[in-house]
Structure of Sugar ABC transporter substrate-binding protein:
Amino acid sequence: MKLRQTLLAGAIAFAPVTAFAADLTIGFSQIGSESGWRAAETTVTKQEAADRGINLKFADAQQKQENQIKAIRSFVAQGVDAILLAPVVATGWDEVLEEAKDADIPVVLLDRTVDAPDDLYLTAVTSDLVHEGRVAGQWLVDEMDGADCRIVELQGTTGSSPAIDRKTGFEEAIAGHDNLEIVRSQTGDFTRSKGKVVMESFLKAEGGENICALYAHNDDMAVGAIQAIKDAGLNPGDDILIVAIDAVPDAHLAIANGDMNATIELTPNMAGPALDALEAYLADGTTPPKWIQTESKLFTAADDNQAIYEQKKDLGY
Ligand code: GZL
């Protein structure tokens, strides 16, 4: 496990990266399996590690920060070469990240960020979460074209960087458009089941005829809400417009069927760039930028969503 000291001493400094990676042991503290996107990220991460011959130690935290902290401490005790962390919430990481730093174990953040000094992690591989919210808001601004729209919002996990940033971006985009108003906003914790239950409460509180659009911080909550809207006798994608984020296969299918209107793609492959950065850092100290940004792409009914669904449906979502 203590390969890196040997490497940094130059003992095998000229070994090809592939040979080098084959000796790495990396711990991965994953949030859980709350959404289709999360499941795809896990699938892709395991495949990216296997492709490199990396020994990946996987820990599923079942959405609990205390389980992630325990997993990180276990990885440190095992003397892994590096740690991947998808942090369920943004705060409460300083102490355990200090412990990893003291053990000279680099940490790379995946898909979410932390409110901690940036010398406590090597780099963060994420999308621009605020931009995603802006794109969603701008889509609705354009779609409504000045017409009034009472919006309900399904937020992601409370305290997580995507929930905070996607809300910020959406509100920035609709600011100054007085025809658009968020009338209800509540967390659905990124899951289909909670998305359905909270949407049911929105429909009951507001009356479905008084809701013009749903903004969901991820597709899974939107898919749950679609069922609630149908159960209320309304047509999702028509009576209530729906925009969300992730571009999972079921979102493309919903758009193809007219049940949803737009989604913004989030790649599940955060691990590829993360492992590339780690291999370079551990091999010769190459320091990556503090943020490795992944792309965000808007999909609407104008795209061939049925074909995209067919392409994506077997990718581990
Ligand atoms: C965003 C990521 C979010 C996804 C959800 O980067 O952390 O977590 O949008 C997942 O599907 O639950």
